[in-house]
């Protein structure tokens, strides 16, 4: 009788000596799980709130729509034809000209700058450049929407803005500038606001890599009289920049190519439910008729578009890569073999 509390105590002490670690781990695990669950719920709610904060067609846009006679528009076009009413100026005589919204989704060194100069040579197109290269504009989804609203309401000022008589307005947007991160919200925005997607990719990702390395080198060295240029307008300038032959890291080459390929594939997967067109840089280079397809896609009057940019790397790849032999060995027989083009083995 006297012993029992003592034994109890012993048992208790022994138990509490053996199990605390296990017990604490279990408690910790449960607490973590619960914490993660709470975080998940919170995030879901924030997302939903962001969705609904966004107003389908702003009051400005609706007001103009009523003023204009939209009965001439085919039904399928109505989601994509907009009548913005800019806050900063009046569209004047072009008030009732419908405007299409677009976004060029692309990757660095895939010809999007060149493509954009073509678009902007059309007197009814305002492609406002790489707006989201500025980090603050993509630090959260509200900032992204705020910026997009401003662009599509024709309130964004840039050298490309045609203002009152724009019939198509948009921007150039790199996949690593928040698109993949916020893809759900952006796809939702594109679908609700009738934004069309223009994918622009480069087929030969090895050539793209050469261009990236050469561009990075010029950013440091500034070969053209101390000025860094990503795009050039004369043959002389192009020749200076093309003289540099980068070394490609063959250890990470396959993986680097795969990463770029996956990025493009993911973008298409996410955005394929928006109205879209897929373009390849190589096709645009060899066939300018593709530019007519783009103008039809944007429902703008067809024009002969021009660009004054000059291609930098025009030589065969073998003459543009410092360690071509190694690159050739790594890619030969791999799934990226076709990037080597029709060049024979190195001699
Ligand atoms: C609107 O456009 C349609 C088709 O072009 C035309 O038949 C109609 O008269 C127009 N209505 C007004 C109010 O201008
Ligand atoms: C986004 O960033 C802006 C500017 O820093 C801030 O005012 C706003 O509250 C942020 N919005 C969200 C949803 O985090
Ligand atoms: C294109 O712009 C011109 C003025 O530069 C304007 O007269 C014309 O109506 C516009 N076309 C379209 C389709 O908006
Ligand atoms: C560099 O500047 C000189 C003198 O201003 C000019 O003659 C030359 O064409 C420039 N070179 C390049 C590559 O721009
Ligand atoms: C090449 O890539 C590998 C793997 O990513 C890396 O460890 C190595 O440092 C790179 N070499 C150079 C010269 O950058
Ligand atoms: C050039 O592009 C147009 C429009 O996409 C296409 O119809 C035509 O077949 C292409 N021509 C060649 C030679 O590929």
Structural account:
This is Sulfotransferase. This protein has one domain (59-340): Rossmann fold (3-Layer(aba) Sandwich), CATH 3.40.50. The protein is built from 13 helices and 5 strands. It has helices at residues 3-18, 20-53, 59-67, 112-120, 141-152, 175-179, 183-193, 205-221, 235-242, 253-271, 281-286, 290-297, 324-331, and strands spanning 100-106, 125-127, 168-174, 195-201, 276-280. It has a 5-stranded parallel sheet with strand order 2-3-1-4-5, with helices on both faces. It is flat. Residues 1-9 and 48-59 have low confidence and may be disordered. The structure holds 2-acetamido-2-deoxy-beta-D-glucopyranose (6 copies). One 2-acetamido-2-deoxy-beta-D-glucopyranose binds at residues 224-225, 236-237, 240.
Under the CATH scheme, the architecture is 3-Layer(aba) Sandwich
Could you state the order of secondary-structure elements as H and E? HHHEHEHEHHEHHHEHHH
Helicity range:
40-55%
- The strand line-up of the biggest sheet is 2-3-1-4-5
Kindly name the structural category.
alpha/beta
> What is the total domain count?
1
